[in-house]
Structures are given as structure tokens and as C-alpha cells.
Amino acid sequence: MANSYFRFKHFTIEQDQCAMKVCTDACVLGALAELTAAPRILDIGTGTGLLALMAAQRNATAHIEAVELEPQAAAQAAANVARSPWSGRVRVQALSLAQYAATRPAPFDHILCNPPFFRHSLPSPDAARTTARHTTPDTLSFPDLARFAADFLMPAGQLTVLLPPPEMQHFERAAAVAGLYPTERVIMCHRPGSKPLRHITRFGRISVPTEQRVLPLHEASSEAYTAEFRQLLQNFYLAL
């Protein structure tokens, strides 16, 4: 059973009310996205509030919006934000993406999202976990996310998305229809040379050759974290 909280160096995530708990994937996304020069940041489907708080830690002046469809998760994310050092710069709203779009927010410099991605697997019996992990007609879809980003990014704004490789292919097609194109791709894997686990892809409005690199999480012959992973997460993980 997952812990009811996860303690980082500068903030704590309570997560007993959230279907999706803190995971390595999301931590890498929050540490890797290019956020340092982004005055306005949006975290779509914030869950525990993890990405919003990582963004606040990395960018000392940004205003950060976070939206979450599931009311209990949104309430817990808001509580996590309130206990953090950055409560004045992060706002959590319990809204669907369509409801949030209807408020006509000001454009963003960077949008982050770890969207639902189990498009063909069996839904979980836990309804909240299903909403968090599975694309369904009444929740966030890839075309919805891509269209929203195209509508609410600044002209030079960026969207960074985390997905398994097959699902990223689907998302890239939806993004291209909306006028967004991959500019950088980080391929996460367990060890050097092992099967890709996740793609973290950055999108912009101009179609350019996609820069690509591999991020192994563990050394080839042990469970030790790689030097690159340790450097990436050293400002967040207590054990690094």
C-alpha cells in the first residue's frame, strides 16, 4: 500500500485522498521541464499538486495554476499547496479542462500534463483511479488537451507531456492537428539499453527536428540511481 504522504526536501505531499500517488515518472517530469523562464505555468490534472509545487520550487517568481477534475484530489492538492512555502503563487481549481477553458485564463508560457493514458486496458474498479489513468469519453482526451494548449499558450509557449511511447505517438498526431509539434523528447528507461518506459516530450508551435536523449533511472547492474537521475532530482528527494 502506498504511503499516505511523500516528503520532499522543501515540501510534503499528502496523498490519501488522491487516486494517483507520487511516482518517479511525475517527479522526473517536474524536474526536467523547461520552467525557469516561464512567468505563467499551468499544471493540467494536478492530482496531489506535485507538479505545481515542483514548478514553484524551480521558478521563484512564476504564477502557477493547477486544475483537477476530481474534487477530493483538488482539495488535497490545495491543502498541500497551503502548507508549502509557495502558497501565494500557486492556485488550485476543481474544474474540468473544459470548465477551466470557459473561464478564459490568460495565456501560459508553459503547460505541464501527465494525462490519462491507458486507452485500451481494462478500467480500474476504483472510479477515481480510472478517471486519473484512463482516457474515456467524459474525461480528458488527447485532442482536448492539444486543442486547449494551442488555444492558451503564448506564441512562444511550450507544452510538456509525459506518456508511454505508444500513447505518445497518438498524442503527437493530435498535437499536430492542433498546430503543436515535438521539439524535444526524453526517453526514460530502467537501465541503459532497456525498453523505453515513458517519453517526456516538449511541444511548440514551430515544426523543427526533434532533439532526443535517453534517461536511464538505474545503473546497468544495480538498483543504484544513475548520476544523471541523481543530479536531476537532488533538489527534491531527501535521499539524494
From TrEMBL:
Gene Ontology MF terms in the entry: methyltransferase activity
Domain spans labelled Methyltransferase small: 37-121
Enzyme category, top tier: transferase
UniProt-listed GO biological process terms: methylation
Pfam families: MTS
InterPro entries, alphabetized: DNA_methylase_N6_adenine_CS, SAM-dependent_MTases_sf, Small_mtfrase_dom, tRNA_Adenine-N(6)_MTase, tRNA_adenine-N6_MeTrfase
Subcellular localization: Cytoplasm
Annotated catalysed reactions: adenosine(37) in tRNA1(Val) + S-adenosyl-L-methionine = N(6)-methyladenosine(37) in tRNA1(Val) + S-adenosyl-L-homocysteine + H(+)
Keyword vocabulary terms for this entry: Cytoplasm, Methyltransferase, S-adenosyl-L-methionine, Transferase, tRNA processing
EC number: 2.1.1.223
Stored PROSITE patterns: N6_MTASE
CDD domains: AdoMet_MTases (cd02440)
PANTHER family assigned to the protein according to its UniProt record, in alphabetical order: TRNA1(VAL) (ADENINE(37)-N6)-METHYLTRANSFERASE (PTHR47739:SF1)
Family: Belongs to the methyltransferase superfamily. tRNA (adenine-N(6)-)-methyltransferase family.
Function, as annotated: Specifically methylates the adenine in position 37 of tRNA(1)(Val) (anticodon cmo5UAC).
Name of the protein this chain belongs to: tRNA1(Val) (adenine(37)-N6)-methyltransferase
UniProt lineage: Bacteria, Pseudomonadati, Bacteroidota, Cytophagia, Cytophagales
